[in-house]
Design goal:
Layout: H1 3-18, H2 20-29, E1 51-55, E2 58-61, E3 66-69, H3 72-75, H4 84-96, H5 105-117, E4 123-127, H6 130-145, E5 149-153, E6 175-176, E7 186-187, E8 200-203, H7 208-217, E9 222-227, H8 243-254, E10 257-261, H9 271-274, E11 281-284, E12 295-299, H10 301-304, H11 325-336, H12 340-363, E13 368-373, E14 376-381, H13 389-396, H14 400-412, E15 415-416, E16 423-424, H15 431-455
Parallel strand pairs: 3-15, 5-8, 5-9, 9-10, 10-11
Antiparallel strand pairs: 1-2, 2-3, 4-12, 6-7, 11-12, 13-14, 14-16
Amino acid sequence: MSDADHVAQAILDDYAARSPSSRAAFRTAAEVLPGGDTRTMITYTPYPLYFDEGEGAHVKDVDGNRYLDVLSNYGALVHGHNHPALVAAVREQVGRGTAPGGPSLLQIRHAERLCARVPALERLRYCNSGTEATMWAIRTARAFTGRDLIVKIDGGYHGTHDWGHVSAFITSGPRFPQRLPGLPDARLAQGVPRAVLECVVTVPFNDLDAVRRVLRACRGEVAGVLVEPMLGVGGGVPAEPGYLEGLRTATEQEGVLLILDECATFRIGPWQVRHDLRPDLTTFSKIIGGGLPIGVFGGRADVMAIFDPSGPDPVYHASAFGANNLSLAAGIAALDHFGPDDIDRLNAMGGRLRALLDDAARERGIAGHAVGAGSLGYFHFGADRPRDAAATAALRHGREELRALLHLHLLNQGFLTARHGLLCLSLPMDDADVTAFAAAFAHALDTLRPYLAERHPDLLAPAPATP
């Protein structure tokens, strides 16, 4: 067995020794759930951990192992676990009712808080998830403009509806050439009909010229441009200075709606407020529900007026659990306990964490970069910093096992991260937690060095010359 094989096997053996109950749970789950779970994103080999409880910035698995949660349910739990104010709000509301089947005052209270934080949010509507929010934002843009075409970002993730699953994942799906030459081929997730491509064009992130070219070539056809301020699944790549502002100008000139997906980035600002951007429509989810399902889409009052039932031809919008009282009560508590000072502190911790990860790699002569914005981050192996999803795909190509071993090693040390590398900080964390995670990351790089030397020597700097 080679040195690299020894390293990999030791990490896997350690993982298996720590998690026999998770292994048993996985086998049982596979009898009723394909793949042993119901969320593709959180599945990994040899089996995922099964969690039992959470408190503050920590979670505990079914084997009793405790982890610093550096994932926060993919950014949704900015307050951590079991926050007293959120728990109290949910307990009180359960006793009063969860979904009365009609309007409630909680809608007003929650909506007023969101509108106060986001000036571009003049009117809004509720649904149950970020997937629904972006789906409804797309329908809103089409209904308002009378056009069909949506421009989205290659590698941009906007949930699991058909329109969002065009080029949503950077390494999977059959490819199809697009209507304009020079653009990345579109990729369709399995089960998404090819006909969807007639209404969606994808362009590279951080490439204003590509968007301008599409808007010119498809003048009068484009309803909206859908974009994340920071690529999520696409690798934590933030928008470059001037990019979103350029999109705003280009869309205004062509009568196209700019749709900003802030489901993930609300926690860092929101992005549009921090960067003085005013999109036509915005989508939200995750932290605004206080740990319960929620989705919001909204924006310009004249655009959202298409949903007013008193109008001449209103758009029909139904959702049995949209604006349910339980999610709204938790969301109100969440917003009331997440102010500007909290955001600034989390963002500062995120910047410090990325700097420490960069230091750990540089000090060990390993090529890699931490990227992200505010309290959201990623680490990429490789000499270059990605600026779009194609660059992220190039950095990940051939390094899947390396990333998997890093993920498992961090779990073995008691740190929960995403399999694909996402890092999300939460309010219960402090600088000591950031320091501890950076130390665990450095230890993982030390452990993996023989593996890197054998399997990925291109990531290692030449040994310093002997004096």
